[in-house]
Amino acid sequence: MSFLPPAPDCPKCPRLCGFREANRQHYPTFFNAPVPSFGELNAEFLVVGLAPGLKGANKTGRPFTGDYAGIILYASLLKFKFAQGDYKESREDGLTLVNCRITNAVRCVPPENKPELAEIKTCNEFLKREIAAMPRLKLILSLGLISHNAVLRATGHKAAFAKFRHGAIHKLTDKIVLLDSYHCSRYNINTGMLTPAMFDDIVDRARALLR
After folding, report:
1. What is the pTM of this model?
2. Which of 89, 100, 117, 148 is the most exposed place for a label (fewest CB within 10 A)?
């Protein structure tokens, strides 16, 4: 199955469209469009976050790039050989992913970083198509509860199928496994809910599951 990402002027979520247009006025140099996934469709490993940050991925046009969470995520991906190069918070930094792809449950930046339920459901069609278009996919890493539930929906499961828990592993299909982690956000790191070492453990576990 081929995968078509959201168009730059995707009209499906009126609130997000309005916010996007306002951002184009306030931040004309920003990307200000649905942020495309990063990495190849033939990867075995898919990382699913929540949504672009206003002055992070919405600015740079690459998932987690410029967001505080990207510092944690890309450092760990580099450490465990899922990425090569140097992460410099720019799409032009030359960083490449290795057997890994990164996307978000919601492709457009939401006000206050909080997408509404209807927006999460609407954008889920893109995640569903993306997963279906990854022929070698074996492992999905969900960062946070919203991502976890979005992955369940995209793979045809109800929320009750698998409860979110940091470090939990759920078998979604005969070929695909879901691994849960707290989101590597600034809030979670600052409060100690998640530490860089804890996140490294998750990515190391992902590496082991793909062996």
Report:
1. 0.97
2. 117
**What is the mean predicted confidence (pLDDT) over 165-179?**
97
Q: In this structure, are strands 45-49 and 100-104 parallel, antiparallel, or unpaired? A: parallel
Q: How far, in Å, are 21, 23, 42, 141 from residue 52 at the CA level?
A: 15, 13, 23, 17
Give per-residue pLDDT as tens, 144-170: 999 999 999 999 999 999 999 999 999
Number of structural domains (the chain) is: 1
Report how far residue 179's alpha carbon sits from residue 177's, in angstroms, rounded to the nearest whole number: 7
32 by Cβ neighbours in 10 Å (0-12 / 13-18 / 19+) ranks as buried
Assess contact for 58 and 31: CB atoms under 8 A.
yes
Predicted confidence (pLDDT) per residue in 83-109, tens digit: 999 999 999 999 999 999 999 999 999
With respect to residue 22, please indicate whether it lies within any of the assigned structural domains.
yes
149: CATH: 3.40.470.10
Taking the C-alpha atoms of residue 186 and residue 167, their distance in angstroms, rounded to an integer, is 19
Range of the domain at 181: 14-209
